[in-house]
Amino acid sequence: MHRFGRSVQKRANDRWGGVFILAVVLAVVGAWQLGGVLGNLLGEEKPAAMEPVPGLEEATGISGPAGSPSQVAIVPRPFQVHFVQVGAFRSEGAARNLVSELAGQQVVAAMTPRNAMGLVKVYVGPFMSGEEAGEVLDVMRETGVAPNAFTVALDVDYAPEAVMAMTGSANPDLQTGLDALNNYLYEAGAWFARRAAGEPADGGMLVALGQEVRQAAARLAAAEENPAITRFLGLADMASVNAADIEVAASAAPGSEEFQRAMNGYVSLLEQYHNFYAADAASE
C-alpha cells in the first residue's frame, strides 16, 4: 500500500485523466523539441538510497482546527524528501523550459539554485517516501523518457546541539526557531506531495509554522552576532517568504505560476537548510 493508498499509475489517472507515462512522455518530448533539454543530464551524482521516511505515518502535529496558528504543535524530526532528478543545465532558461513543459502536464517539478559547479538542476517531486520516487523513476526509465534520471534523497537533519555548540551556549529562541523550521520543511513536503496527488491540502499549518520561525528570528535579531544565528536568520527569511507563497498557491493549480514559485522556493530552502547543517558539522 502506498502513502495515498493506491498505485502511482492509478493516482496518475485520477490527477490527469490519463496515463502518467503519456503525460511525462509528452512533456519531455516537447522539451526535446525546444532544444534537447534533456541532453545534459548529470552523471556525476549517484542514486540516493530510497528509505522510508521516519515518522511518515505520524499525526500532523495539529491539535484543534486545522490551520489554526494558535493550535500548531511543533514536532521536529530528521527525515528525507525524495525527488527524481531529470536534468541539470548550464542555462537557467533551459531548466525553466523543462519545468514549464512538465508543469503543463501537471507534473510537479522545480529548479534548484545554481550550484558551485554552475548547474541548475530540475527535480520532479517531492515524494515523502523513496518507494514512490522509485516507481516514478522506473516509469521514466522503462519508457525511455529519461533513461539517465535518478532519485535524490535530500536529508533534513535535526541536530540542534551542533548549532548550539557554535553559539557557545544554549539559546531557547534559536532552539524554538530550529524546531519550527525543521517541522515546516516536513509539513511543506507533505503538503506538496498531497497536492500533487490531487488530494486536498490546507496551508494553514504552514502559515502558523512560518509565523513561529519568524517570531523566533525577530527575537534573535538583536542577539550578539554569531555565524549560526546569522545563517538561521537567512533561513528564517526564506521560510517566511515560502510560507506566504504556499498560502497563495493553496488556491492555485499545480501548473500555475503561483504554485511553481512556491515549489521552487521550497526546494531552495531545503538545499540551504542542508548546507546549514553541513557547515555546522564541518566546523566541529
Would you kindly provide a written description of the structure presented here, covering whatever features stand out?
The chain is of the alpha+beta class. The protein folds into two domains: about 10-155, 2-Layer Sandwich (Alpha-Beta Plaits); about 155-284, Four Helix Bundle (Hemerythrin (Met), subunit A). Helices cover about 50% and strands about 10% of the residues. The protein has nine helices and four strands. The protein has helices at about 10-15, 20-35, 90-105, 130-140, 160-165, 170-195, 205-220, 225-250, 255-284; strands at about 80-90, 110, 120-125, 150-155. The chain has a four-stranded antiparallel β-sheet with strand order 2-3-1-4, sandwiched between helices. Helix 2 (about 20-35) runs antiparallel to helix 3 (about 90-105), helix 6 (about 170-195) crosses helix 9 (about 255-284) and helix 7 (about 205-220) packs antiparallel against helix 8. The longest helix has 27 residues, at about 255-284. It is globular. The termini are far apart. Keywords: Membrane, Transmembrane, Transmembrane helix. This is SPOR domain-containing protein.
User: What's the CATH architecture name of the largest domain?
Assistant: 2-Layer Sandwich
CATH topology of the largest domain: Alpha-Beta Plaits
Structural class: alpha+beta
Annotation field: number of helices: 9
Percentage of β-strand residues: 5-15%
Order of helices and strands: HHEHEEHEHHHHH
Major beta-sheet overview: 4 strands, antiparallel
Within CATH, the superfamily of the largest domain carries the name: Sporulation related repeat
- Tally of discrete structural domains: 2
